[in-house]
RNA sequence: GGCCCCAUCGUCUAGCGGUUUAGGACAUCACUCUUUCAAGGUGAAGGCACCGGUUCGACUCCGGUUGGGGCCA
């Protein structure tokens, strides 16, 4: 057993988005595989015809790739157990169902939905747990013929044992016991011939040689029937590891992208989304909540988060190495990740903590690299044209340096659009204008500062700062009054990084022009 | 309703019977620095859900209660 190659898988449905919870499950599987020299398999659960569209799969593949979770077998890669799309494996499932029927582990059932419902209702009325009576179970070809003569159509059900205990030795949860006498005869094939999840999943896991099933906790209750299928078919059992699910911000409910409205009541979550939307709108991206929200990996990719930050955060959402290490490179994660140290209780998604990781990783990058990350956003917002000239690049680098960790995600560069727009396009924050340039005196002071700056030979940050300080002292005004008046005139806002840097990066000509514009504007 | 899982600061977690006045991180608050906004520095506040056992000793083991969640209906 120990010598077998570790083989793990994730089996997402093509739903159009890579959800945070799935991303974490994928990460844990990937870490486990890489840490054991194993194989990470991607299998697509696209048995639901209605949603089976290629464009719904792309975001999931892109998201996994972006996170660095490369798969060894699966879509685009192929592999020895192809096809990896369940929609293409129907014959395999049919054979499995036939075998299950042949060995008595499953049966054709001709009951109608109404008849089953009636039985269930009766059980409830009598206060006992419902279990199907198998009254319309067909055991022979004659049975089938008879039922079909009545116009009935069969489903295939598992014929679960009447009694007994099934034990799952879960790698994370330990020993979990189930009373087989309480299990239902679940349907594994519908009337229309389509197959149900438990069947396809168990069969594929066996056929693909999966050794460890690492999946979310909600599947724990389903494990007995999958084990029953596996055993009935004569396959060896994989090991199971059921992960706690990822919960909502500030609660223990399972995270769901359908409950976005509720999450928005949480300030942290709302702030994160607002940050993303601000960026996305500038890029002309679709910000409809279905596709663009912090529950979905694509959101982070689009707004300029670093994959390392997400990976580090996700790794720690339900796992820890020790009592203090919080930063891990992917290599360290691979080395240290262990299922035994996965926590058993659900962990809620905390935007703040994620942001803290993002800032850490962002600031760890050299300025040149951060500049490289930020430039595409300027280009896509139409503020910088391609190819990017060395001058522009250097200018952006200066902004990135001056901004420091105000640029938390790459898209935040768009907050500094005032360095790129034409003077007449500059947007002024009216309250700020009113506050710092609303009065006659303030404008007169700005006019004098303008003359001072017009005479400046060197337009560098430190020099300018000294000039402004001297000016404030001489005129007996507060330094802040000077710097803020200038800031509003040049950037339109009353916040931002150091005024010396602002002026210097903006450049003398433009600074003077913008001051003139503001002074002009205020006369009316 | 039945079955299963879970339970340490607001959040993520460390803790695997005594080394613990329960440690770290994020968030929060205060002070400090600062010619704006951030950041930085210093510090504070904040938790073992409850009740029984077992034990010389329980956050740690067992049982129950409560609460939360999941699956099946």
From TrEMBL:
What EC designation does it have?
Answer: 6.1.1.17
Does the record bear Protease in its keywords? Answer: no
Keywords on record: Aminoacyl-tRNA synthetase, ATP-binding, Cytoplasm, Ligase, Nucleotide-binding, Protein biosynthesis
Which reaction is this enzyme known to catalyze? tRNA(Glu) + L-glutamate + ATP = L-glutamyl-tRNA(Glu) + AMP + diphosphate
Subcellular localization is given as: Cytoplasm
Q: Which residues bind ATP?
A: 257
Q: Where is the short sequence motif 'HIGH' region located?
A: 12-22
Gene Ontology biological-process entries: glutamyl-tRNA aminoacylation
Q: What is this protein called?
A: Glutamate--tRNA ligase
Task: Please name the gene that encodes this protein.
Answer: gltX
